[in-house]
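Q: I'm a student working through a structural biology exercise. My instructor gave each of us a protein and asked us to get a predicted structure, then write a short paragraph describing it. Mine is Molybdopterin-dependent oxidoreductase. I'm not confident about reading structure output yet, so if you can add a plain explanation after the tokens, that would really help. Here is the sequence I was given:
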Amino acid sequence: MGAIGPRQAELAQSHPLRHLNWWASAAGVLSAVAGVLTGELLAGVASPSLSPVSAVAGAVVDFAPPAAKEWAIQTFGTGDKAFLVTAIAVVLVALGAAAGLLELRRPGFGAALAALIGVVGVVAVATRSLVSALAVACAIAAGIVAAAMIHWLVRRLRTDALEPPPADGAAGWGLSRRRFVRALAGSAAVVALGAVVTAVVRGTSLAASAAREALRLPSPASSAPPIPPDAAVGVDGITPLVTPNRDFYRIDTALVVPSVDPGGWKLDVTGLVDEPVSITWQELVSQPLIERHVTIACVSNTVGGNLIGNARWLGWPVRELLARARPRAGADMVLSRSVDGFTAGTPLEILMDPSVDAMLAIGMNGEPLPAEHGFPVRMIVPGLYGFVSATKWITELKVTTFAADKAYWSTRGWSDHGPIKTASRIDAPRDGARVTAGTVTLGGVAWAQHRGISRVEVKVDNGDWLPARLGTGISRDTWYQWSATVQLSPGRHVATVRAMDGTGALQAEQVAPPPPDGATGYHSITIEAGA
Ligand SMILES: Nc1nc2c(c(=O)[nH]1)N[C@H]1C(S)=C(S)[C@@H](COP(=O)(O)O)O[C@H]1N2
Ligand SMILES: [Mo]
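A: Happy to help. First, here is the predicted structure for Molybdopterin-dependent oxidoreductase. I'll explain a few features afterward.
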């Protein structure tokens, strides 16, 4: 082995590696694909609602001029999302090839271009409302993988091409490029395997999340009543009145979040009805929609627990759809089914009650439902625990009877019926917190969905119950904030809260665990008051 042979030197100088263009482009495209797969695969596990590609799709829709959007909708109709994803793929392939060519000529520059594409992904993720550290990390990983792979493959290509011919005189590049080809083929095999794994892990979620990002919710025909100015009591550390989507509790039996493309979604009303009906996504979104704040809660929530959240839901009243199907006399339950087989059994009477506004929800706090919260459509029923009402990824409403059908949790030790029990919680100060002795402000939330809260009281140690200041409720279907100032002497104290619902019934004091129909008992915290 010695100096670079004259043939190679000539290649490098007079025809600077031009004959390797195809190979370098292939390496670049493969690296781009590897990066995208990495991002999507990680997102599938760590951040199902927000993957790098769906973020870019969303950002493109947000920042594209209206005329371009109009054109895409006119030209591709409901295929506009598919067009968007295809366009992003074409751009990525082109940029990948360009990065390969650049890396061949200026080692490091192509890798930098790949990293820059990764940065675009990171920025796109950062502009989305569901942004999280994990979502950003997925996009960063995508950029790193693409940049590292392009650098490694093209270096392999260059060394192979520039290596002196072996002593036996066989053509240098012709022989040694096989090592590069092997590296490329090996990488392609890994990428292909990664693609299969990604497809399995993510299913159709890329299409679904891109569709979600590109979606614009229609305006409600009936808007949510405005939040009263004195609904918030202004105590530090209290739960916000409306829970941001990214902080909303999540409870379901799904190992992998189902991905449902609204384009193929429909909801069938079956069972004891005069006329089985179906509704597609397009039909659903063109109905007069209502928007309401509703606080949903999990029956598994323990006293003082946080499996509860309040959101502004946009949807179509379930009773309108049921009315089209005309439930038969004798039916008393609607078994709602999810794509993943989960079922909930809801009293038909509640779903048909015009004062309840049970809805097929498509929007949560002004955006399409996040994948984790049931995209594209879920049910929301004010006043009922989630396990008997809040079916996510909903696909069927079977009108039936409690006698004939059992829902998922009702066969597993939980009750058939699940009205939400009146409860209250102290959020501030935190349990075990140290405060300065003297006047201390407590704050928290209380809820009795559909009955409303009429009164909240607090007690320190074994003292008297003192009335708390109750914020005006957004509606009786949501939780209420409350605050109270108490006097604490130095030492350890126990503060307790209780609430009374709108009918004048006090919340149950008797301590009961969540099964079979919801925990009861008063919430207490300890406070260390220092001098
Ligand atoms: N498809 C499906 N929907 C479901 C569930 C589920 O396991 N699968 N869990 C229910 C339960 S027990 C609750 S408390 C709520 C929680 O809704 P969230 O995850 O949006 O907060 O969803 C309900 N809907
Ligand atoms: Mo639940």
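A: Here are two points you could use in your paragraph. Confidence is low (pLDDT under 50) at residues 8-15. The pocket of MTE (ligand 1) is lined by residues 248-254, 298, 338, 340, 342, 373, 386-387, 390-393 (CB under 6 Å). It's a good idea to check both against the output above yourself.
Q: Great, thank you!
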